[in-house]
UniProtKB/TrEMBL annotation:
GO terms for molecular function: 6-phosphogluconolactonase activity. Residues 1-24 form the signal peptide. Gene3D superfamilies: YVTN repeat-like/Quinoprotein amine dehydrogenase. InterPro entries: Cycloisomerase_2, Haem_d1_sf, Lactonase_7-beta_prop, WD40/YVTN_repeat-like_dom_sf. This is 6-phosphogluconolactonase. The lineage of its organism: Bacteria, Pseudomonadati, Bacteroidota, Bacteroidia, Bacteroidales. Keywords: Carbohydrate metabolism, Glucose metabolism, Signal. GO terms for cellular component: cytosol. GO terms for biological process: glucose metabolic process.
Amino acid sequence: MMNFSKRMQMLLCSAFTFSLSMWAGDGLTMVVGTYTDTGSTGLYSFMFNQQTGETMLLDSLSMTNPSYLTFAHRPHLLYVVSETNDSHAAVCTVSLNETTGRMRLLNRQLTGGEDPCFVETNGRMVLTANYSGGTMSVFPVLRNGLIGACRYRFAGHANAHAAAPQNTAHVHAARFAPNGYVYATDFSADQLLGFKPTSSASLKPLGVAGRLPQGEAPRHMAFSPNRRYVYVMSELGGAVTVFKWKGYHLERLQTIASDSVGGCGGADLHLSPDGRYLYASNRLKADGISIFKVDAGTGKLRKVGYQSTELHPRNFALTPNGRYLLCACRDGNCIQVFARDAETGLLAIKQTIRLRKPVCIRFKTRN
């Protein structure tokens, strides 16, 4: 006869499987990174229903400051930074069971630069942007999908005549662009650096690809679905700058204010999946998200709204169907779930997920 404990395990497993089946077709795997200095465990996995906005917590993994993450090109792997301001700063490979949400740390590699705050991959290499280290680190992806030891580091530039923080070098993001190049935000020098990937999983520096107005401090980038435009969010200037690709080079078309109150805390930006609207988060004063309409012909922006949020909206993500925008409010200790009007682009609060110090949200369609 089966003992009571075993029967309970089977019943709980059956109930969990039934709950998951209720989400079939609409369920997304959502992984959230946090800062861990005030009691957060580290990395959290959820299931999110992109039709109803319902959320189910699945698992947590103890890590130090997993402040940014990306999904690997092979199934069931994540690459996650451990953002520390010392020699222990690292990027990690994490396994993810998409059915149960269970996560497990597989390996870690030192970045050689303090405060890695961004990570991205093209399947052959992994890049981290190391803010305080002022560098971009390049790692090979091994045959088993794990991250290999750092092979290259490329330095950003400082403006010796600027006030802090631009008087020392900072690199805030590094992206593989649709045109085949890599671009990094050279925060302190108000410019974007360009690189060309090579067949040996390395990068060839190409120099300055585009320049921003002085004092803007570029932070994050977004690429238009039609592969014609690049949008750059500035932290200190609090503006979005629109570039048009001309080969490898970027031609500046427009700089438009997102932060209109001088908070000097511009954070993140993302386009809606259809490319019709762009959203940009602002911190430190009048915290919230600017909403811009994108001109389909020119790529330029027109501000059409502003959605207030809880404190410090550092990062946010839109669901693949464009129905919801989820904002990680670090100092509000929550993720705000906003329903999105596809025609007007405007947002309306639907629910709040309470979580300590959330700073990064990533979605993946469930298999």
